[in-house]
Design a protein that fits this description.
Blueprint: H1 3-12, H2 15-23, H3 25-53, E1 67-71, H4 75-80, E2 93-97, H5 98-104, H6 113-129, H7 134-143
Antiparallel strand pairs: 1-2
Bound molecules: zinc ion.
Length: 146
């Protein structure tokens, strides 16, 4: 673990609390690195999409609320489909205000016509791979698209 982090942790934690953390130091460092990268990607992508699409919520068209980046097909569904590498697929991203984003949560929003289009695209992808995992098969059956 980097010394800075170790010193920082020592200021806040007792020796007893610190021991198990230091034992997991490498894992923690990796987690921190991934979080930082994700945060940066998030910020930069939101700025890029705002430039391209306008500074406005794509559901309610308001722009006076805090704007956020949303995955139309939720991350959880992408991961269940083993399509982790499509996490950054911009066609699956939309700008939502904080209110619309919290209303949508991590559900599939079928009032958005893009949801079906994207599901068809992703299902075609996992179909072309031909190596369904159990979860993908269940999803495929659930949405029953061919
Ligand atoms: Zn909105």
């Amino acid at each position: 673990m980097k010394n800075n982090l170790q010193i920082l942790l020592k200021e806040f934690l007792s020796e007893k609390q610190l021991k198990p953390i230091l034992a997991r130091a490498e894992e923690l460092e990796l987690i921190i690195k991934v979080r930082k990268l994700k945060g940066r990607w998030h910020r930069e992508t939101l700025q890029k999409l705002i430039k391209e699409r306008g500074e406005v919520c794509e559901i309610c068209n308001l722009h006076d609320n805090k704007l956020t980046l949303d995955h139309i097909i939720p991350k959880k569904v992408l991961f269940d489909m083993e399509l982790d590498e499509y996490y950054t697929d911009e066609s699956n991203l939309q700008i939502l205000c904080a209110l619309c984003n919290s209303k949508k949560g991590s559900q599939l929003d079928f009032s958005n016509s893009k949801t079906i289009v994207l599901l068809e695209k992703y299902i075609a992808l996992i179909k072309s791979r031909g190596d369904f995992s159990k979860e993908s098969k269940e999803l495929y059956t659930r949405f029953n698209m061919n």
